[in-house]
Amino acid sequence: MAAKIFVVGGNGFVGSAICEAAVKRGVPVASLSRSGRPRRSEPWMEKVDWIKGDALAPETWKDAFH
What is the DSSP string of 53-64? Predict the structure, then answer.
């Protein structure tokens, strides 16, 4: 099983670059941000597990990880 990366703030400038680079290398990605899935749409974004939640409030995202 391939390693999966978890990016906090994957909708921002740096976070989205990390997500895109990982997807292009075939690495599974999950991203947590307050807005969830970005409004813009690019092909690589379809391969990211977008999770809506507040990183400082685990109750908003803990159910996404079973």
Answer: S-TT-GGGTGGG
